Amino acid sequence: MKHESIRKAFEEFLRARELKLTTQRERIFERAFSTHEHFSAEQLYDWLREEPGARVSRATVYRTIGLLAEGGFLGSLDTGRGELVYEHLLGHKHHDHMVCMECGRIEEFHDERIEALQHEACQRMGFVLVSHSHRLIGLCRACARKRGATPGASASSAPLAGQGQASAAVDD
Amino acid sequence: MKHESIRKAFEEFLRARELKLTTQRERIFERAFSTHEHFSAEQLYDWLREEPGARVSRATVYRTIGLLAEGGFLGSLDTGRGELVYEHLLGHKHHDHMVCMECGRIEEFHDERIEALQHEACQRMGFVLVSHSHRLIGLCRACARKRGATPGASASSAPLAGQGQASAAVDD
DNA sequence: ATATATGCAAACGGTTTGCATTCAA
DNA sequence: TTGAATGCAAACCGTTTGCATATAT
Fold first, then answer.
1. Binning pLDDT at 50, 70 and 90, where does residue A155 land?
2. CA of A159, C1' of C13: distance in angstroms
3. In CA terms, which of A96, B17, B46, B141 is 20 to 30 Å from A138?
4. In contact, A123 and A117? CB cutoff 8 Å
């Protein structure tokens, strides 16, 4: 889906809800959809204040991001450090994330078989699946190399009563 | 793994790090491991202050939960509402979660095939997997029934530029 | 004209921290 | 005895909110 039609969808979304197309919403929308990276609300706010033109307040950034998320334009992903990051959804096929615990880098992956098994699990449990959040936490290739770990090899998942070294494991 | 040995592991963990076994740590540990539910730090704090005996401050609860998580005794799970909940890990096989967006209920599920596919994905991407967080968000059987939805049937995943109704989709 | 949106600054809620005091080892 | 742990209250940080003002329709 290309920019033009996404923008159309946004305008229609506002109209359908009888919301106004303000300069702020326009700028926030444009900036959010002009990046392919994941960004936090604060990040987006900073980007906007660096740009020349109308000022946008932090409150409006948060409010508009909320709107965009409700409308299904943006998806949110929790970094695990009490901060949400967003990405645009329209024109992007579904994917899950790998988050590097060292550098924060976020990679995307997708496996249709996993999706299918999720549905199967819901079937079993009588659960109505609406959305899901699937994050793999570990080391990206670059950070793994720096640490001398073997990429691909999962770190032994024995976070047991271990000794001193962290391990933490924000496992679910 | 039964209580006795878990406790042993905890004491050993403290000793290994040259940390002291205080009455507070003892009480926090005991309370945390005496429930099979998921609990928040605040929740645990409340439980403790209802009990007779030594008082434990909120700060110590947070600090000790942190310790327990580091030691691999507790795993944390983000509710999606800016709050972490914990569960004890020792003596529990790995599982993932289904979170009811209506009533907050947390169910557990597990599928070895999904675990395997995760590893496969990491292999592909050269990512060193340390832990993961896999949450299915939707309606538990009871809430689905109340709403007249069909349990098992995934809500159409078309959160597109839709009309008025929410849909939100904190998808990843 | 008028309901909606904005900006500001204050409030929030969960979590963390600095520091004087208390306590396990 | 003494370094580590606790309690308290203040600080933090991302996010939300109340209210007076500005603005799209």
1. low
2. 31
3. B17
4. no
User: What's the pLDDT score for residue A157?
Assistant: 39
Backbone φ and ψ for B109, nearest 5 degrees, come out as: -145, 165
Confidence at residue A64, expressed as pLDDT on a 0 to 100 scale: 98
pLDDT, tens digit, for every residue of B116-171? Answer: 999 999 999 999 999 999 999 999 999 899 887 666 566 543 333 333 333 333 34
Q: Beta strands of chain A (E only): which ranges? A: 39-40, 74-78, 84-88, 96-100, 106-109, 128-139
Q: Is A75 on the interface with B (CB under 8 A)?
A: yes
Can you give the pTM of this predicted structure?
0.81
Closest CA to A106 of A132, A83, A77: A77
CA distance A76 to B103: 21
Q: How far apart are CA B72 and CA B161, in angstroms?
A: 43
Residues A42 and A108 in one domain: no
Range of the domain at B36: 1-92
A·B CB contacts under 8 A = 264
